[in-house]
Amino acid sequence: MSKSTAASVESALPTALAGFKDRAAAVKEAHRVARKAIQDDKMTSDLAKRGKLDGLNVGTRAKLDAIKAEQESYVSGLRSKIEKELRGNQPSDASSVLLRRDAADRARKLTDKNEALEVLQDAIANGDAEMAHAIGTRARNFTWLDVSDVYQAAHPDTADSAAALSYVEANTSGVAYNLSNQMTYAAPNV
Question: 135, 144, 184: which is closest to 166 by C-alpha?
Answer without folding.
Answer: 144
